[in-house]
Amino acid sequence: MTPQRIAVLGGTGFVGRAVCERLMRRSPAGAIVVPTRRAMHANGVRPLPTVDVRVADLHDDAALLGVLAGCDAVINLVAILHGSAEAFTQVHVSLPKRIAATCAALGIRRVLHVSALGVGDGAPSNYLRSKTAGEAALRAAALDLTVLRPSLIFGAQDQVLNLFARLQAFAPLMPLAHGNARFQPVWVEDVAEAIVRCLDTPATIGQTLECAGPEVVTLADLVRLAGRWSGHPRPILPLPAALGHLQALLMECLPGVPLMSRDNLDSMRTPNVATGALPGLGSLGITPAALGQVAPGYLGRSDGRTQLDALRAAARRG
């Protein structure tokens, strides 16, 4: 039976907005429940006619129960990139455990969970270790589970290529640690499509899928491409690992979300690329878009959202 009422946890975020748009276009679309701590954070999905926005704290048991009540399936996209070890545990481990317990209490079996490439025993960062434990917690439950592991996700509203482009607009050069770290960037629209296809494909139950683009690039490549495509390339100043960690420590001390943390650098020690040992986007009939097919369009314009809409139309994906 195709799920008709779907809770999208993390639905107000970068990937979540794309997923909600895809779900709205399903036939039949069904209802999409999107929880958020603050109502204004849901402005990006509120106009979608099938979205039901709920103001709720997912770390509160009663609130989570209220969000999931009446749902046929759950998509968990909740994740953080920065924070303490305790914060990573709360978001990536404790929340999946509570999702599993709440699903059991409500009789919900279908769960899709977005993890990350690079997870595994002995992972070098709090981010990857907590993602590993979160997967394990869900697998230990009696769920119809599908896990998706994306590489670096890019798109018009991304926080990586856009950040590198903004920095190069005013910085004379780009100090960069771990420039040889490897990624296999994947378009947000391809990840969203994969999630929706998994939801509607019972054969993906019990599977773990790797979501990666067609090319492997380094962090230095990403910086160079972001500068070139945005029209203001800058030279890269490679930093040794020790100096890079010192730079990240200083960034962590600044107010707001850090541009780079020591944990981010630790994560880069593990290649963020597909292993090939698990099914990929091709198993779902998706041919992933290359970075150069999409990113130049939004990095070269101030209105990234409008450009992405044009790219979707051109690709006949919207």
- Mean pLDDT, as a whole number? 91
Number of strands: 13
Going by CATH, the homologous superfamily would be NAD(P)-binding Rossmann-like Domain
With helices defined by DSSP (H or I, 4 residues minimum), what is the helix count?
A: 11
- Report the sheet with the most strands, covering strand number, pairing sense and barrel closure: 7 strands, parallel
Approximately how much beta-strand content do the residues carry?
A: 15-25%
From the 3D coordinates, which CATH architecture would you assign?
3-Layer(aba) Sandwich
Class computed from helices, strands and strand pairing:
alpha/beta
SSE blueprint:
Elements: E1 5-9, H1 14-24, E2 31-36, E3 51-55, H2 61-68, E4 73-76, H3 85-106, E5 110-114, H4 126-139, E6 144-150, E7 153-154, H5 161-170, E8 174-177, E9 182-183, E10 186-187, H6 188-199, E11 208-211, E12 217-218, H7 219-230, E13 236-239, H8 241-253, H9 262-267, H10 291-299, H11 304-315
Parallel strand pairs: 1-2, 1-4, 2-3, 4-5, 5-6, 6-11, 7-10, 8-13
Antiparallel strand pairs: 9-12
Helix pairs in contact: 1-6, 2-3, 3-4, 5-7, 10-11
How would you describe what is shown here?
This protein is α/β, with parallel strands linked by helices. It has a single domain (5-216, 269-315), classed as Rossmann fold (3-Layer(aba) Sandwich). Helix content is 41%, strand content 16%. It is built from eleven helices and 13 strands. It has helices at residues 14-24, 61-68, 85-106, 126-139, 161-170, 188-199, 219-230, 241-253, 262-267, 291-299, 304-315; strands spanning 5-9, 31-36, 51-55, 73-76, 110-114, 144-150, 153-154, 174-177, 182-183, 186-187, 208-211, 217-218, 236-239. β5, α4 (126-139) and β6 form a beta-alpha-beta unit. The longest helix is centred in the N-terminal third of the chain and has 22 residues, at 85-106.
